[in-house]
Amino acid sequence: MATTMPIRSQPFPSISERRSSLSSAQGSHRSSNSFSRPRRHSKAPSQHSANIRSPIGSLRSQAQPYPGNDLRQKRSQRLKSQYPLEDSEPHVEYILLASFDIDRGPTMEHQFPGIISPDENLLAELMLPDQTHMRTQDWTIFFLHKNSGEDQEQEEAKKQRQKAKESAKDGDSDHEDEDSDEDDLEGPSLMYVLNLVYTKHDPNEKRGAKTQAMAICTRHSFLHIYKPLLLLALHNYFENPSQHILENLYNSLNAMDLSLMPQLTRLERQVLQANDVRDLFVEKFETMIEQRLEDEAAGLLSHPPASPDRPNQTKYSTPRDTHEFESRIVYNDIPIPVKIPTAPSAETVGDFSLIQLVQTFNTPHVTQPQPLALHAHLTTAGAFTHPIVVLINAMLTQKRIIFLGHQRPSGEVAEAVLAACALASGGVLRGFTKYAFPYTDLSKIDELLNVPGYIAGVTNPAFSYHPEWWDLLIDLPAGRMKISSSIAPAPTTEGSTFFSQQPNLPKETGTDPTGDVAFMDDIMTSIEHRQGEQIIRSKFRSYISKFTRMAARFEETVYGASSLTVLPPTEIEKPNGVNGASRKPSTTTTSAGGAKPLKGHGYVWPTEDAKVRELAATTAKIEGWRSTRSYYAFIQDLATLSQAQIRDPTSPISPQSANANGTTAATTPQPRPYLDISHTLSRLRTLRLTPAEAAPIYLALSSYCTSYTTILELLSHAPLSEAGLFHVSLGLWHENRDVRAATTALLERVKGHPAGRIWFSRLGGFARMGFGRAVGEGQPEGRTSDE
Fold this sequence. Notes:
Blueprint: H1 15-21, H2 55-63, H3 69-75, E1 92-101, E2 105-112, H4 120-127, E3 137-145, H5 148-168, H6 174-179, E4 190-201, E5 209-218, H7 227-239, H8 243-254, H9 266-274, H10 282-297, E6 324-331, E7 334-341, H11 354-367, H12 387-396, E8 401-404, H13 410-425, E9 436-437, H14 445-449, E10 455-458, E11 472-475, E12 480-483, H15 494-500, H16 516-528, H17 533-559, H18 608-625, H19 629-647, H20 655-658, H21 677-686, H22 691-704, H23 708-716, H24 726-729, H25 737-752, H26 756-761, H27 765-777
Parallel strand pairs: 8-10, 8-11, 9-10
Antiparallel strand pairs: 1-2, 1-5, 3-4, 4-5, 6-7, 11-12
Helix pairs in contact: 7-8, 9-23, 12-13, 15-18, 16-17, 22-25, 25-27
C-alpha cells in the first residue's frame, strides 16, 4: 500500500555499532544510533558463485576506491552499465520481519540493517494483511514514500549531476544527448516493498499456528525476482529465528552483480519494449563483456575464480533473450538464477500479465454482457463499453478505483492493481503507481479517501457497500465492473461546447466512432493467436500514444495551441488541408543540410469527417484527462526532452537551427530538418496518396534518418508487429527514380544499423526484389558517417 509514512534518514552506524546491534535477537532492531540508506555491498560477477560476505568484510571492501582516474577517463568513452560496479546504491535497502502475536497483534520483530521508520505498528499491519491465517502463504506489495528532506537532497544531487554532464560534454556521439536526459525522467520517489506471509500450523501455539512475514525494501521495480530468496530465508527463520538470517539474506541480495547490463537510451528502450526479437541489441551485451575482459586482462578488476561446480562453462555469456538480463544470487552457497528486465517500462512494478487481466473481464463481457451506468468519461462506447476500455478511461480521468478480490489471495489483487497501472501508462504516461495501493484494508480507509484518484486493491466485501468511497468498483472473481451511483458527472467544458455547436458535424456512420471496439477486437485476436505478453503490451502502448496525439490535435482545434507537442518555428503556422498537413508536395526551400522540410504533425485520420467524428466522441475523455496528474507529468516529460533537444545543435528546435538559415559555418553541426516520423508513417499507412504526394515523404524520411539515433526513432514508430518498414519499402516501386534511390539509400542505412538489420531481414520477397532492382539501377546515396 502506498503510504505517506516517511522513511527514516539518519547517519549510518559504524562497524563496531553494527556488531553490538546484532547481539539482540529479540524484539525490533533498535539502537541509540540512527540509520540511513545502507551502503552497497560488493557484487559478485554474474556468471560465478561467490561466498557470502559478512557486513564487516563487505564494508571493508567497499572502502577501497575503485581503480584510479585513468580507468574512469577510459570508461567515460565506452558503453556504460545500468548498475556499475562502483555504484554505491544497494539493490535492497532494508529487510523486515514481523509476526502475529495473539495478545499484541501484528508486531515488528526486526528491521535490518537499520530502522526504516519509527512507526512499527503501521509497518507490521501492512506486512500482515487480513485473513492470512486462512492460507499457508501469501504475497503482498506495498509502497513507502520518501520524506521531503530526502526529496530535496535528491533534487540537489540531480542538479549537480546535470552540471557535471554539461561541463564534461564533448559532443562526440549522439548517444550522449540521449543519455543526458535519463536522470531527468525519474519515476515516483517510492520504495517498493515485497512481502511474504507464511503460516505454519503448530499445536503448541496459542492459536494453533504461527504466522510470520518477511519483506524486502528496494528502489528497483523488478522486486519480483526476490521471491525465491524470500521463501528460503523465511523458511530458515522459522527453523532458526535469528537476525543473522536477515543479515545473510541482505548480503546475498546486494552481492548480485548487474554490472554487465548495458545502459540503454530512451529510444533503445522503446524499441526493445515494442518488439519481441530475442537478440535485439545483443551487440551491446557483447561490448560490455569485451570491456570487462579488457579490464580484467589489464588487472584493473579483481574477481573470484571460476565456479568449481561448472569449470568448463564460459565465464561470461550473452543472454538468450536481451529483454532479460540473466544473473545469479548465491544464498547459503546455493546459486539461484534470476532474470532482470533490461528495459522496464514506466509505471511497471513487479511481475504481472496484461493478458490475464484482459481475459478476466473479456469472457463475462462476451458471454453475458451487462450494461453499465452511463458516464461521459467512462462509457465512451455506450452502456456496453468493453470493461478494459472503461478501466483505461477511469485511470486516465483520475477516478477512484477499487479492485475487490473477495476470498482471493491479496497477492492476486495486488497484481491486478499493478497491471492496471501499467495498462493505463503504456510506458508513455506516469503518475499512477505513486497513488496506487496494491493492497489495503478497512483500517486504512481514512488515509485512502484523502488520496484523489487512488487505485486500491482490497479483499473485504464491505467496500462494495459504500459507493461513496469509490467511482469504479472492479469485482475480480466475477469479472464485472460497477460505476458508482455517487460519481460526479462530467462537467460541461469548452471542448464539448465547441463540438456541439459545429453546424456541419458529420453524422455517425457506424457504432464505433472512437475505434475502441475495433481495438479490443484486435487485442483479443492477438491473444487467441498467442502473440505473447510483449506484443499485447506494445499494442496498449500504441493505444495510449494515439490518445496523447489525439489530445494534442484536440487542443489545437479547440484552444488554438497545445502543450502536448514541441514544434519548431516552421510548424507554427497551420497549413491548410486534411489533418493539418498539406496534401500537395512540399515547396519549402532547401535547408543548409540539403533536405526539404516536410510540414505536418500529430495524429492522422483518413478523412476530415473521421477526424471531427472521433474527436467529438472522445471530447469528454480528453477534457477529463486534461486536469489530471498524468497530463501534467506528460507535459513535464515533454519539456525535459525538449530541453535536451535545444542543447543539441543538430535538432530542428534548437536556437542554432532556427538561426541557421543556410549561413552557418562549415565547422558548425548542420541542423537536420524537422520531421514528425509518427505523422509521416501514419500518412503512408492511412491515406491514399498519389505518387506526387508520396514522393516528398520518402525523400524527407531518407534525408532525416541518417544517424544511429534517427534510425532508432524510425524503428520505434514502426514495430514489427505492425508491418515494420513495409510501407517505407513501397518507395522502392515509386515511379520517380530519385524517390527509388532515396528509399534504397534509407534501407541501406537501416540494413547496416545494429537494430535495423532485423527490420530489413523481415521485409518480404516483394520488397527485397524491389531493393535489388533499385540497387541495380545505380549507385545509391552514401551511408551515414557514423555506421
